[in-house]
Amino acid sequence: MLGQGATPIINIVEYILVYKKNKGNENALNKIQKIIPSNDKMYNQYNLLLETEGNRKLVKTVEHSGSEIKIYRHKDFILKSIPVSERTESNYIKIFSKIVRKDSQQQESSLEQLIMSNIENDDTLYSVERVLKQGKSKGKLKKSLYMNNNVIYYLKKYADVVDNKIFRKVDMNNLWLDYEISSAGIAKEGAVNLKRGKKPEELIKRIIEIGTNNEKDIVLDFHLGSGTTASVAHKLKRQYIGIEQLNYGDNDSTIRLKNVVNGDKSGVSNITDWKGGGSFVYCELAKNNQKAIDKIMSCKSLEELITLFDELYEKYFLNYNVKVREFKEKIVNENEFQNLSFERQKEVFARMLDLNQLYVNVSDMEDSRFKLSDEDIALTKNFYQI
């Protein structure tokens, strides 16, 4: 049995559920990669140094599935084996952009078979270029290297150097481990403090990259909290909408987004090369009954509450079952009510209000009672596209 406390196995797994609107849309979610620390296996695989590709000459043009494939033969290239003693992280960082490995071609690929049948097996470097006809890289030029029935791969395509360490890039799977997304220090990410419930920016970055493709995509967070989602979306140059009911004061999402605009260096700023910039629009819902609650909470005595009561039933929406005269003339004078703490008395007053009317409904925004400015009305219409 899994669980906490005395059970033998502690349950530490959390789940992220991913949905897409259209089941038939295979491109709705993106294939992304994660980075993992390098190891000896990688150094032994990538054991060649291609100091220069030399000069090349077009030797043949062939066709495959309607695509033109150009084959080039290289000369004056320099390819060396890296001695075992030099296969270290510090040395590989110095020569990172020139490290390669050989790998066997895909026997089942008709394209690879065509290419191999048109190049010589003579210790010569060949490069092959073609324009991709499908997929997300459609229209882009792809260049591949070959030698002696092998494909040559650059390490820089499958790894990154981060903080003077080499990390391999591998296709994302459904197991995300602690060392991949550290939670250490996240309480102060974005220069706002939130000790519980705050998500690492690296985690949000992964989620956004799975579901969005470009800067026109919109990221929506219904529970914005300290603003992690909006901050990461901003750094990734995505559009975003954040909604939050609570005010976190000095640790509010608006404070964090101002820090991001000003060049915040925490979270994913390093890996996204974030330098600051951009802007955001901050709006508040037009208050209706929430104004009354604010007035109730600002009262300093029971006398102030009782004086406020007339305004409450004249200007605001009370619950349908509130008996106004009985409450004002009888209940507030009873010992049971008088003996309540002042905070509890304010809560009783607040609960008389209809909580479904805390804010002005869109359909009522042009009602003169709410005194909304023409600018606010125009902004609302533009936001909701009405």
Describe this structure in words.
The structure is a single chain. The strands form 4 sheets. Strands 5-6-9-10-11-8-4-7 form an 8-stranded antiparallel sheet, with helices on one face. A 3-stranded antiparallel sheet has the order 3-13-12. The chain is elongated. Strand 5 (55-64) and strand 6 (67-75) form a beta hairpin. It has 386 residues and is α+β, with helices and mostly antiparallel strands. It is built from 12 helices and 15 strands. 26% of the residues lie in helices and 21% in strands. Helix 4 crosses helix 5 (228-235), helix 5 packs parallel to helix 6 and helix 7 runs antiparallel to helix 11 (342-351). The longest helix is centred in the last third of the chain and has 14 residues, at 302-315. The mean pLDDT is 88. The chain folds into 3 domains: 33-162, no CATH class; 194-261, no CATH class; 289-370, no CATH class.
Number of strands: 15
How many alpha or pi helices? Answer: 12
The parts where pLDDT drops under 50 for at least 5 residues are: none
Question: How many structural domains?
Answer: 3
* DSSP strand content: 15-25%
Average pLDDT taken over every residue? 88
Outline of the structure:
By secondary structure, the chain is α+β, with helices and mostly antiparallel strands.
Summarize the topology.
Elements (H helix, E strand, L loop, with lengths): L1 E2 L5 E2 L22 E5 L2 H6 L2 E5 L2 E10 L2 E9 L2 E4 L7 H6 L4 E6 L5 H7 L9 E6 L9 E7 L2 E5 L4 E4 L2 E7 L29 H11 L6 E4 L6 H8 L3 E4 L10 H9 L27 H10 L3 H14 L8 H6 L5 H4 L3 H10 L22 H11 L2
Parallel strand pairs: 1-2, 14-15
Antiparallel strand pairs: 3-13, 4-7, 4-8, 5-6, 6-9, 8-11, 9-10, 10-11, 12-13
Helix pairs in contact: 4-5, 5-6, 7-11
